[in-house]
């Protein structure tokens, strides 16, 4: 658990989930362009509103974000790169 806390504290904002405020786990990207942990965005009952921008999220348009997954695993997100 201490590792998770230290890992999260070292992450920039774009590597954390806006729902659980933890490091992204199994990151997904929505049709509105926001990232969440797969388990944090429940679309089992159809479309939902994005917790960030309130846009309608269509379940069929949610995709795994492999680039974000690599960034989180390597703790190499944009703020760490000076972008």
TrEMBL record:
Pfam families named in the record: zf-RING_UBOX
Residues covered by the RING-type domain: 17-54
Annotated region (Disordered), positions in chain: 64-83
Membrane-spanning ranges: none
PROSITE patterns hit by this protein: ZF_RING_1, ZF_RING_2
Keywords of this entry: Metal-binding, Zinc, Zinc-finger
GO molecular function: zinc ion binding
SUPFAM superfamilies: RING/U-box
InterPro entries tied to this protein: Znf-RING_euk (IPR027370), Znf_RING (IPR001841), Znf_RING/FYVE/PHD (IPR013083), Znf_RING_CS (IPR017907)
Stretch forming the signal peptide: none
Ranges of compositional bias, category Polar residues: 73-83
Protein name: Zinc finger, C3HC4 type
